Every structure is written in C-alpha cells, then in structure tokens.
Amino acid sequence: MPPSKPASSEPAPPTTIPLSTISEAIAKLRFGAVVLTVHDGRLVQMDVTERQRFS
After folding, report:
1. How far apart are CA 14 and CA 28, in angstroms?
2. CB within 8 A of 27, min separation 6: which ones?
3. Which of 27, 8, 11, 31 is nearest to 19 (CA)?
4. Which residues sit opposite 39 in a β-bridge?
5. Which segments within the chain are labelled E, that is strand?
6. Is the pTM of this model over 0.70?
7. Virtual CA dihedral for 34, 44, 37, 6, nearest 10 degrees?
8. Least C-beta-crowded within 10 Å: which of 9, 11, 15, 18?
C-alpha cells in the first residue's frame, strides 16, 4: 500500500487558469460584478453579473 500524504492545513497553491478566467471576465465588463466563491481555500465558483445602463 502506498504511503498516505499527511493532512495539510494550507490550501493548494492557486493555478493560473482561474486567474486568467477572472481577468477576462473583468475585462469584458463595463458595469457589473464578479463574485468569487471559495471553499476550503480553493476557488470553486465565479458568478458574473452584467448591468446594462441606458442614458
């Protein structure tokens, strides 16, 4: 049986894939919000809400 990894209280290091996705979402928005959901120190969800403004 392979040795088990000891449990660590530190979250895994972030990857560049979510960071680029977040950056793209922000770049596309004129008005709105980007909400990130984190569970146990890891990004698990991103919600993008776009507002449309009329003059």
Report:
1. 23
2. none
3. 27
4. 42
5. 32-39, 42-50
6. no
7. -140
8. 9
